[in-house]
Amino acid sequence: MIRVVLPPHLRTLARTSGETPIEVDGAVTQRSVLDALEAAYPVLCGTIRDRATMQRRPFLRFFACERDLSHDAPDTPLPDSVASGAEPLLIVGAIAGG
Fold it and tell me: 14 with 6: CB under 8 angstroms?
């Protein structure tokens, strides 16, 4: 069971709170977690990744184990502690401004 923490606006959209548990079959990668998340919560399709390119939306970042995973390839395995459920995958809304 993978634990995913969504930013507040996506939690509201998905009607979930706190951590969102997700079952992932096979390798635990950003792509597989996001595929499973969108399958469980179809309303999130297109909110985290662009529907056409499947690229991460510009103002969302991925963190796990105190590391920024936002620029890792989508098929790079996530850390073992995320795959085991010990640590969550954080999807964080970036803040921009000057």
Answer: yes
- Taking CA 38 as the corner, what is the angle to CA 45 and CA 22, rounded to the nearest 5 degrees? 155
Any idea what DSSP says for residue 53?
T
Cα end-to-end span (Å), the chain: 39
pTM for the whole thing?
0.91
Reading phi first (left if > 0) and then psi (alpha if -120 to 50, else beta), residue 48 is in: alpha
Using CA atoms, how far apart are residues 8 and 6, in angstroms rounded to an integer? Answer: 6
pLDDT digits (tens, 9 = 90+) for 5-53: 999 999 999 999 889 999 999 999 999 999 999 999 999 999 999 999 9
Tell me the DSSP string of 55-94: PBPTTEEEEETTEE-TTS-TTSBPPHHHHTTSSPEEEEE-
Query: Where do the domains of the chain lie, and which CATH numbers do they carry?
Result: 2-93 (3.10.20.30)
